[in-house]
Amino acid sequence: xxxxxxxxxxxxxxxxxxxxxxxxxxxxxxxxxxxxxxxxxxxxxxxxxxxxxxxxxxxxxxxxxxxxxxxxxxxxxxxxxxxxxxxxxxxxxxxxxxxxxxxxxxxxxxxxxxxxxxxxxxxxxxxxxxxxxxxxxxxxxxxxxxxxxxxxxxxxxxxxxxxxxxxxxxxxxxxxxxxxxxxxxxxxxxxxxxxxxxxxxxxxxxxxxxxxxxxxxxxxxxxxxxxxxxxxxxxxxxxxxxxxxxxxxxxxxxxxxxxxxxxxxxxxxxxxxxxxxxxxxxxxxxxxxxxxxxxxxxxxxxxxxxxxxxxxxxxxxxxxxxxxxxxxxxxxxxxxxxxxxxxxxxxxxxxxxxxxxxxxxxxxxxxxxxxxxxxxxxxxxxxxxxxxxxxxxxxxxxxxxxxxxxxxxxxxxxxxxxxxxxxxxxxxxxxxxxxxxxxxxx
Length: 442
Ligand SMILES: [Zn+2]
Known about the structure:
This protein is an alpha+beta fold. Helices cover 21% and strands 34% of the residues. It contains nine helices and 23 strands. Residues 293, 299, 301, 303, 380 line the site of zinc ion.
């Protein structure tokens, strides 16, 4: 019952047409419904002697009326509440309850409140949807305001999904529980896989091929409207150019979540695969960049198209050996890492680090630009071993430490459950005929 009521309140907000007049007008327009009762009144002893009929008009309790108001740009919560007839005490109390969930000053325009109460009166009940997951409720009863915070009722499920890649991840043919996907949900999983799970093993901007495939089991928390509040991978399998990678998340006590293969080896490398988020570069990957360098000399780096200003991060920890303008590189950063490896990030619009500074892996060192020998905004990235440019994709780079023995027993339990979930959907393969076709096409 309780959750049904909450559901309804959240739904009311979801379906709120926001075409209601301010509450004052609605309340004034409320009309009490009159009930008319015919009463036969007679004294017990004289029922048959002197029948008498009286008409009595009794007002039925008027139904409560509701109105919605939306927080406008530049408007404070207190102003909106006061405008809808709440007195100073109610405004203060509601603001304090909101504070338990969120700083009232940080509420964005568009937050919707529902006011209800008897007609021609100030509201006796206020619902305020502070966030997608929290509803604040204030009711007037027994001469006092009672307040509560309600949390949206969540349901948990596990999503099983598989994909067969045509030319890139976006053209994957999905199978499994595709009908359970919310709008834009699949894209989020792709970004997460590319940036946080397999980014060290596979360059999703250029290594993905027709016939590659993946399957995944995802645990989700969903709101009543079907949107996803939280999700986490239970297990992922990725087949890429004949190799199969498995990823299972595990968190060491006091540590961060990390992905391991079935044997407990880390997927994370000491070098990130790319210095710009896949989320940014993916939409630019089909374009070609600065033919100038390619014409003049062999191209010794990798270009990542990205909008000017996109953050650039160090692919591994190390010491900055150069931070400034350097010929055709324009503004660039060079970092010296362990094992005779160094990396360069060129054509930057701005630089965040100084020569001699130590930087951590994934630390932001500058922003994408088009300085130096460059015709459009992009990042030129070089990977050098003992001073010679190499292709980082073809070099066997060291991985982060494997899971320690003490955690392996726990990990295996989690792994076996996770892989059981993964087996609910098959890893797709190209049909024989098209596999031959694709070989010919290559
Ligand atoms: Zn380049």
